[in-house]
Amino acid sequence: MRQAEFGGGGSRIRWTETPGAEPARVYVHGLGATSAAYHAHVAARPELSGRRSLFVDLPGHGISDRPEDFGYTLEEHADALAAALDTAGVSGAELIAHSMGGSVAIVLGHRRPDLVSRLVLTEANLDAFPPQTAGSSGIASYTEDDFVHGGHARVLDRVGPLWAATMRLADPRALHRSAVGLRRGSVPLMREILTGLDTVERVYLQGELSGELAGADTLEAAGVRVVTVPAAGHNVMFDNPDAFVTAVAAAP
Q1: Which CA distances in Å does 55 have to 15, 28, 84, 185?
Q2: 177: closest CA among 103, 37, 72, 65?
Q3: How many CB atoms lie within 10 A of CB 233?
Q4: pLDDT tens digit string along 134-190?
Q5: Which residues pair with 28 in a beta bridge?
Q6: CB contact at 8 A, 203 and 228
Q7: Averaged pLDDT, 220-234
Q8: d(Cα 52, Cα 22) in Å, to the nearest integer?
Q9: What is the pLDDT of residue 252?
Q10: Higher pLDDT, residue 134 or 42
Q11: Phi, psi at residue 161, to the nearest 5°?
Q12: Taking a C-beta distance cutoff of 8 angstroms, is the pair 190, 107 a contact?
């Protein structure tokens, strides 16, 4: 386990890593998740082994600290992730990022282009104010105090055992602020940033069971390779790990 200070208050973002060849692959989880739980099983596959791999837990999640005075916006998460990569001596990395983590990775590419050479995004949030069916919308529908004092427990009961297993490791206040920040989106908005990152190889994985990706034609026209993964929903790395590994391993 390694760690780096973020936010100026002495809090630490943490990650585990495996040694290997550069450029590193950096795995970033979604809202209420952890990186190793969602990605270690695919990073160990023969097609992906042999590369340095970092499994980073964002602030408020997993093994990272959860400061009460942190805002947990997408920009703040991205800056904390940058602190981890700087401490790890990583540059020009491949970011393999899921859901909210994909949004954070996009913002990181905008704020610190030296750290990112490739983005593989799994159902990353690209727009502000997603549908009410989105997990972030359900969390953000509470006030912060109501979520901390009862809402967190109710959400854990509703989301099912897979997501609950990692969500219960996230600080409730950090989880709520992260959901609010995700719904608010970044400035510029994630979709706008992604289409403009034309020096970075960009792959977007959309689970077939999740329906069509809005604006896919515009993304592809901007050079983003959109891949619809059969027999998969939001958690492509669990639903169809073979297709996930193929997409991550594919050469530019």
Answers
A1: 5, 7, 11, 24
A2: 72
A3: 16
A4: 778 899 999 999 999 999 999 999 998 999 999 999 999 999 999 999 999 999 999
A5: 56, 97
A6: no
A7: 98
A8: 6
A9: 64
A10: 42
A11: -65, -30
A12: yes
